[in-house]
Design goal:
InterPro entries: EarP (IPR016633). This protein is an alpha/beta fold and 380 residues long. The chain contains 17 helices and 12 strands. Strand 4 (83-87), helix 4 (94-98) and strand 5 (106-110) form a beta-alpha-beta unit. The chain is globular, with a radius of gyration of 22 Å. Residues 154-168 have low confidence and may be disordered.
Amino acid sequence: MTQTPTSIDIFCNVIDNYGDIGVSWRLSKTLPLYINPTKVRFFTNKKSTFKTLVPKLNEKNIVAEFYEDLHDAKFQDLIPADLVIEAFGCDLPQTYIKNMPSNTKLWINLEYISAEKWIESYHLMPSIQKNGVKKFFFMPGFTAKSGGLLHADLSNCDFINDEFSNNSCSKSLLDWISEHIGESLSIHKKNGDGIITIFTYPQAPISRLIEKIQSSKLRDKKIAYLIPKSVFEKSPCISKIHLNKNHQIYVCDFVPHSDFDYLLRVGNLNIVRGEDSMVRAIWIHSPFLWNIYPQTEDTHLKKLEAWLEIGKFSDDYKKATLSLNNPKMPIENLVKYVESVFEDKNVNKEFDDFRDYCQNKVPNLCREIKDFFTKITQNK
């Protein structure tokens, strides 16, 4: 008989931004679609961050638990779950760890996504812990030998059906724009104007990009730039840009996690940051550029180049992506690519091809976790 966990605990320690908690929370929501446990507990140290991301918790059988530190008294008598996932190597409470041997069947350390080849040899590697429970590394990635990706939920009709795909102006999308951003942007969308959504880290050359576009081939095209308030406030130069009469900047409030797919549907081009946003952008039928999380010694650029190679993207796209992430690269590469998004009718093809590759060739992370749990428990 196939065994699946009846309970799942997922831990996420928030350091900065929303990247780690975004991935962890999406896993918490998606994993039950494949495993159907009795309960899922999501533990995080930042209640305020979670509440911003998830204003209303409507998920069935999922409980959000908050703690100040790892010595929180709530862990003293807590019974660990069958399946325990620590996101990105975060520490677990010692009292919780002590109780794992008699309760936990599988302990996973979920690492950051990477397209680098070396992760294949680390994926599913065990690590014996002091409490005697084996902890296994799960390495999400873009190859058959990696842990795979959090796949789109294809049962969600709003996400995949024809009415709501291909950046269509379906009534539901226009209504969402009007409600969450404003009637003016809804009119832009309905009229077929260009819309660029910008969700980037402060290091990205966004103000220079918008400034250069003003004198580019797109100067006479109606274009709206949609920028979250958090990004706009950390990039003061944006407000000083002199826009021509055809271009306009819209600043929107933070979009809840559950609505992020709608936001991606708004843009003809999505410039996204971090892991969760990039993976969601893959499943959308629109072009996107990835602003990877910056690291010391340019480690992030090596990861980015590996991703660009595995995606088999065009040279123009590679140059544009590197210009977005590397200040040493000319901004003109980025401007040229943005122009092509609105001028080249075939620009979507490489994204459709990559989406199909990810859907058909890259493992489904949740299924991989489910199958590995079954394998481990059957061998005990």
